[in-house]
Amino acid sequence: MEATCSTRAVKVLKYIQRNSPRSISRASLTELGKLPVTVLSSAHAISGWTELTNDEQLRSWLRSAPPPAAKSSISGPLFNGTLVFAHVSFAQPNLPPSGVSAADIQTAISYATLAAIPINRYASQYGPNWIRVWPVAIPFTANLQSSSFTDADFEGWIDDIGQFMRKQVSNPCIVIMHNRDLPNSASFIGERNSFHSQTSSGIPYCYSLVFGENLTVADNNHTFGNLTRQKVYAHTLSHEIAEMVVDPRGDDSNREVCDACSGNCNVQFFDLFDQNGVFMGGTSDTASATGFSFFINSIVSADVAVDGNFCVPPGGNVQVACVYPPPFVRGQLYAYGDTGTPGNVSNPAIAGLDDWLGFKFLFAGTNLAGENQIYAVNDGGQLLSYGDDGTQGNVSAPTTVGFGGWQNFKFLFAGTDLTDANRIYGGDSNGQLLSYGDDGNPGNVSAPTIVGFGGWQNFKFLFAGRDLTGANRIYAVDDDGQLLSYGDDGNPGNVSSPVVVGFGGWLDFKFLFAGRDLTGANRIYAVDDGGQLLSYGDDGNPGNVSSPVTVGFGGWLAFKFLFAGKNLAGDNRIYAVGA
Length: 579
Known about the structure:
- By secondary structure, the protein is of the alpha+beta class.
- The chain folds into three domains: about 15-65, no CATH class; about 80-320; about 335-579, Tachylectin 2 (Tachylectin-2, Chain A, 5 Propeller).
- It is built from eight helices and 33 strands.
- Strands 1, 2, 3, 5, 7 and 8 form a six-stranded mixed sheet that branches.
């Protein structure tokens, strides 16, 4: 089974083939493709060029126009677009067509849909990017006159598919998978391994080799050389997608990011993830790893210096450089689970891929139909509602619950009154506390009920939750730092007198909200000035809030929004948006 080659070697080869004078022998250029990867990757450091070619005319041109040195920096934009898989059938005269099966292409699409999310997060170290995956393959017949095709043939197909897809999406990257071991499969002249590049018309593409059939998303179901659980496509596909995302032009405007971890640097590291995209660690041998749902080729940390071949220099810790959790992406919506034991909050899953920073309010609740929702107020003052189905990146498109004016509240949150009716509460500029019902239909939020007639604007925090007895409460922090608890019986103006839950110190928190841990226990969550996420229990009696449990040991100050809710599956979650 072949490994993914150095993309740097491919770029050097394409630079020479595309820019050398037409007077230079095509045979000499073809011979370059047979050179070792390490020689091509280091071409920028060659002086006499005898290691590269015996053609004196080619050597003379290389002296005057050598391949540019590989860059370790970022000077161009990253990829922002859609991966489009083409289902290519290679058709030779008088032979049945050959190509990766439609089922295997669809499996690869399912894999890429999952893998794109951590790739986006890792690549964000190098610059802003976004990746979508077109959900179906585009059928394409590659008509051949012989058993092989050239780079020009291949890029012509890319342009045909790309121009068609540009009518559907603004910036497609075409992905073609090729299994050379299938009957009647065509050979790619001068290309030994997987690579990514861009056509002369500006369409990026990934050419990814496949070494087996009956693919799975986990890619651990094949046997080679009597070794079981071997990978056959995900290592090459994730490598080329990741390097394309960081360097979509394929011209070394930006650095290579996978070779240091698996490529021409004599190392192999892969990152493992569960079904929710939660990082599970790394491995150099996916066949020995268990419990993961998918893996990707590791992406070297942007904080690590690499040499001219994009390798970690001798003496550097390659494993630390390659195996680490994917960074947060500013503005994405993350979901955590709190198991109820100290420090054991889960790794985050990504609920929403888009930029959630632009909202004035963001909170979770339940509408009158009993559906768990995430509510947001946009810059037009509309109240929007989203559903989180619990799978990564698949938060629903929004429903407009209220058409305007929601930006004028000081506080906005969701809870349940003492009759168990689900409500949206708003503290207005007059100090009134209002209560609304959302029936789940666009624009049909109810007229407000006045829960409290005044004074609610003076609190620092105002939110809803349940105490340990299961009683629905509205919590507030007054200017003395006390934590107060109120009951709303559902009638206008009949909110109860407050109970003092905590006698002081509650003003010092950055975030304060209520939710449930994964055991179903009702909790009050807070983030202290050390960035710890703390959890308290309110037993319903004055001043008897429990001592805190440290749910997360640090880093929680970095968020713009932090709140608790449930996804559509009923799982208790803590939601966060990275600032």
